[in-house]
Amino acid sequence: MLIILSIINYYVQFGDINGLLFIAVIIFFSYQDDVKFSGAILFCALTNIFWEYGDLANHKFTNDIAALITSSFRIIISILTSIGTHTFYLEKIQKETILKQKAELEKTNLELNKFIAMAAHDIRNPVASIKMISDFLVEDEYLTKESKEWVEIIQVTASNSLLILNNTLNISQIRSGKVEMNFLKEDYIQFVKDNLLINNHLATTKKQTILFQSNVPTLEVEFDKSRLVQVMNNLINNAIKYSPEDSHIVIYVDYKEDETNGKYVKTLVKDEGMGIDEEYHDILYHAFSTTPNRPTNNESKSGLGLAIVKKIVELHHGKVGFNSVKGSGSEFYFCIPISQIS
After folding, report:
1. Which residues are paired to 210 by β-bridges?
2. Which of 18, 30, 61, 214 has the fewest CB within 10 Å, making it most exposed?
3. Which strand (E) or helix (H) includes residue 295?
4. Angle at the Cα of 223 from the Cα atoms of 339 and 114, rounded to 5 degrees
5. Counting Cβ atoms within 10 Å, is residue 252 exposed (0-12), middle (13-18) or buried (19+)?
6. Could you give the CA distance from residue 109 to residue 107 in angstroms, rounded to a whole number?
């Protein structure tokens, strides 16, 4: 639009020195960046307004109607050019400023993620040692009842701290883009069963029962075992954490067909907990977002577990979802393709 206006301005006053200067400066700056080019147009347009205003005053006194109309037309064209150029220039500057701020923010965020990852990694090892020692001590039959209670407090605290550190380390790695996936074909049904055994001890401490149901007897799936363990543990731990004593937690495995992307395996974790109010549904998978729901045995929560679940499942080219009604329990599920997209 600006170029068209400039050409019109040039041809309307063809032969005039100011018109030639107008287009010459624009052509000269056309080899520079957009901001300089728009600045050249703005300079010429403003200059032309002053020139034409002088001519307009002169024609007014000489009563040259044709020249008066021509000068008025040139001024209007120049004003439109100035307004358009000024708007373009401001938008360009704003866009460049936003892009610069975004780049600086991304750089700062990357450095922060690195720092968090390093801190979490360094703290995790001693906390893991404390947990391991407390696991051994709590089984010592020579401990007095009082001593055993203290050791159990240490054990629970260490377990909660280790979970938070692992989640923090995982989310930092995912955000920094340094997650390496190792897809191998594994027996998925056996993988799920192994995870249930690992989490069954935690469930029994709250007198809960974990049940397994599958419409798939055996299935070879390409997945990253070490990463998907985190998904299973987070979902099952949440079910245990927010379910009351003497309740059931059910894990379902089934096929899921997708017309576009083929066949998936769907894993669903269903609990009999307190359920989640609908107003919090939109933020459940956001990092550091939590609901007012309190764990039934005062376990800790960081607001990172579901965010990690979503990211890892997406790295498997899969999908996550949930169904939950306040007071009626929750169902969280994830689907991953049986064969990974290369």
Report:
1. 249
2. 61
3. none
4. 130
5. middle
6. 5
- C-alpha distances in Å from residue 153, one per residue of 130, 132, 138, 328, 340: 12, 13, 10, 31, 43
Q: Which residues contact 46 (CB under 8 A, 6 or more apart)?
A: 78, 82
- Per-residue pLDDT band at 208 (split at 50, 70, 90): very high
H helices then E strands: how many in the chain? Answer: 8, 7
Any idea how long the chain is?
A: 342
- Displacement of CA 13 from its chain's centroid (Å): 56
What would the pLDDT profile of 28-58 be if each residue is shown by its tens digit?
Answer: 555 556 656 666 666 666 666 565 555 555 5
- What is the C-alpha separation between 178 and 181, in angstroms, rounded? 10
- What b/e readout covers 172-206, taking b as 16+ CB neighbours within 10 angstroms? bbbbbeeeeeebeebebbebbeebbeebeebbeeb
Q: What is the pLDDT of residues 254-307, one digit of tens each?
A: 988 775 667 899 999 999 998 999 898 988 888 777 788 888 877 767 677 888
pTM: 0.57
Domains of the chain: 1-178 (no CATH), 181-337 (3.30.565.10)
Residue tagged 């395996």 (tokens): 265
